[in-house]
Write a structure and sequence with these properties.
Rossmann fold, globular, alpha/beta
Amino acid sequence: MAPRIGVVLFPGTNCEHDAVQALGRMGADAELVWHGASSLGHYDALVLPGGFAHGDYLRPGAIARFSPVMEAVADYAAAGGPVVGICNGFQVLTEAGLLPGALQKNRGLRFLCTTVAVRVERADTALTDGVAVGTELSIPINHFEGNYTCDAATLAQLRDEGRVVLRYVDNPNGSVDDIAGVCNAGRNVVGLMPHPERASDPLLGSEDGIVLLAALLRTAGATAPVT
């Protein structure tokens, strides 16, 4: 049976269909989940896609964090369900306290829309299951506030616990320790700034994102559906 993936849609999200189509091309049964939903059906994984949830007012993810669906997302994650936040979705997960740290304005205060090289640092998370450590992938970024930051104690914890999932090969935005993605202690919640769904078709210039999306589907297939 195809893994069932919920893609959470907030007002201002603009990458939801990209995610649904990319996952669908890979054989998943992906569907949109409205941010106003107070409960979830049975899903094998959840994706919080990129965009500008609630216009990024106050700061990215600050309002989306209070959407009714986020309580259900938090419960889903606590039960071990795989959750991946991409770009704005990463920002929402940090604002919701599901991931540590925060995303601030890029170094140089410039919006970045380009393709970068990232290196896989862990092979045991919901997004990198079975991917060899050291694998380099060419994946697009599209953000103004993608500069990952955290205090020294949090950074030390992330390093000690092996929770840095992806690092930039050539840091484009000033992120501390070249961090492009991190996970929670359970390794089932992952946030990243690059867009793997935009590197999932040869017509898009790269298929490297398939490596990460395929890992997510492997994780989803190995996880009992969570309500």
